[in-house]
Each structure stands twice: as C-alpha cells, then as structure tokens.
C-alpha cells in the first residue's frame, strides 16, 4: 500500500471539496473513485490471484462501483460485466473501462469489447440477456459488517441483484462475497461507529461489530455453499485529513448521520475520530483487515 499512499500524497495539492459541494452526487462519486476505492485494490487482486482470473475468464461484478475491480480483471485478460445501483459511479466506470469521457466516446472506445456495464435495474439483462454466455465468476465486493450501511441486515437492491445472478449461473459457479474483518483488526471501525451513534439506529456504543459468520449468513440466505475464505490487509492511507474525510463520506455509510444532524457536524466528528491516525507529515494511515468468502451456486 506504499504506492497507494504516495498516490494520495500527490493529490494533496488539490484543495479539499467544500462541504456544500459534497452534497453533489457527482462530486461524491468522484471522491469515491479518486480517493476511497483504491483502498480495496489488494482485496481485488488477492481474489483474482486465488481464483486464477485470466484471459478467457467471464466475470460479473455486482456493486462494481466506479470500476476499479473491473479494470484490474480486464488487465488480466478477463471479459468483464459490471452492475451498480449508483449511476454516478457507473458513469466513472464507463470512463475507466471504455476511455469514454462525460461528453461522449473517447480514445479508448475500442476497449468496449473488454466488457459491459449495466445499472442495477437491468441486472436480469446483464446476466441472462439473449445469447449471453454463462459467467465463470461472480464477485460481490459489497462490504458487510461495520463498514456496511448499518449492519449486515439485508440490502434489497444488492440481494435482488445477487439472487438474479445466482439464478442464471451454472451449477458450481464461484461467487465471492467480501466484508470487514474483526473490529480489533480494523482501525477504521472506530471511525465508522460514528454513523451509528449519530443516527441512534444501533446500540449506544456505536456500530455492531462484524461477526465471523456475516458472509456465511449472506451465502445461506442466497442458497450458496461456502467453499473457502481468506483475509487481506487493506490499509486506508490518505494524503491529509481533508482527503480522509471526503473519502469516508463518499462511501455512503454516513448518509443517515448527515440526515439526522448536518454535514458539518459529521465531518467534525469524523475528523476527531481520525486524529489518532494522523501522522507527523499530515497523512492519515489506518491498518485494516478485510475478509472474503468463496461460495458455490446450487
């Protein structure tokens, strides 16, 4: 992750986004793509290495965000398809995967053969459209546990997309689910607990800690059979405090807290919670462990 932190240090010359502009969905999607999403790159690479993603692999990414996981798979030669409910992030994924800017087709439009992108309401088309071959791998890098939106309770949009993909998959197709590791191994857990405390939706001491069987619970309610798991170090490194606050807000975890209080209050409390992880050079560094589960379709 040294390279990741260096990337953020390079971006530290960019002034922090003002609090008012942070309400712009496009700005938040851009913060996710430029600041936060890259923190999960070690998780993506570990999964692809273990499942031997390579040329010829047909991969379906549910909750593909702004497309970093898809780009990494495509770089290995995989044919990728991404699905996401956030159209702002999906637009950025289109820029990354196709080289297509906001005004239309760009120089990378020939890369369109490497993959496709669909909004979540077109998941059925993505997985079972006319003439569409079966996928070799389905990934759902949708964090559960303390990093999820509340806890590991069902997310209707996510669960619907996952169920649709599973129903169309061949018997034994691997499905990868991902989530946070134990809270004692995740420095970011203390910062994420602010969301639960401010919204008063969870117990008084903050967000519910991740349970060992969170991923297995999702697999069970989706009819999947667990077939292995792993842990990956995904430290969160930021160029400065402003970048850290923007990156964390871009996850959507704090949306309820912002509605319950106000954005400036949430930013203030995030900053206070980040203070123990502020280094002498102004960077912010939080070690974390993520966990993934490999399951098989029925």
Automatic annotation (TrEMBL):
Gene3D superfamilies: Vaccinia Virus protein VP39 (3.40.50.150)
Pfam families tied to this protein: Methyltransf_11
Location of the Methyltransferase type domain: 60-100
Basic and acidic residues bias: start-end ranges: 1-13
Region annotation (Disordered) ranges: 1-28
Protein name per Swiss-Prot or TrEMBL: Methyltransferase type 11 domain-containing protein
Species: Streptomyces hebeiensis
């Amino acid at each position: 992750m040294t390279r990741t932190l260096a990337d953020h240090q390079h971006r530290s010359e960019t002034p922090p986004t003002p609090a008012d502009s942070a309400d712009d969905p496009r700005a938040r999607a851009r913060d996710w793509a430029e600041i936060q999403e890259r923190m999960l790159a070690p998780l993506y690479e570990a999964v692809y290495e273990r499942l031997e993603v390579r040329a010829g692999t047909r991969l379906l990414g549910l909750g593909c965000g702004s497309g970093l996981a898809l780009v990494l798979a495509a770089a290995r030669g995989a044919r990728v398809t991404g699905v996401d409910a956030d159209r702002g992030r999906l637009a950025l994924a289109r820029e990354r995967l196709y080289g297509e800017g906001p005004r239309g087709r760009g120089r990378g439009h020939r890369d369109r053969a490497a993959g496709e992108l669909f909004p979540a309401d077109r998941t059925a088309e993505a997985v079972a459209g006319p003439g569409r071959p079966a996928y070799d791998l389905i990934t759902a890098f949708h964090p559960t546990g303390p990093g999820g939106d509340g806890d590991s309770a069902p997310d209707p949009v996510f669960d619907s997309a996952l169920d649709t993909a599973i129903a169309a998959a061949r018997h034994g197709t691997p499905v990868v689910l991902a989530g946070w590791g134990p809270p004692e191994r995740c420095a970011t857990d203390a910062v994420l607990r602010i969301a639960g405390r401010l919204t008063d939706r969870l117990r008084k001491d903050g967000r519910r800690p991740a349970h060992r069987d969170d991923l297995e619970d999702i697999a069970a309610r989706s009819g999947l059979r667990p077939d292995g798991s792993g842990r990956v170090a995904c430290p969160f490194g930021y160029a400065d405090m402003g970048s850290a606050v923007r990156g964390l807000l871009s996850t959507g975890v704090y949306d309820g807290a912002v509605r319950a209080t106000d954005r400036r209050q949430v930013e203030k409390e995030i900053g206070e919670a980040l203070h123990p992880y502020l280094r002498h050079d102004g960077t912010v560094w939080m070690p974390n462990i993520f966990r993934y589960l490999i399951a098989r379709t029925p």
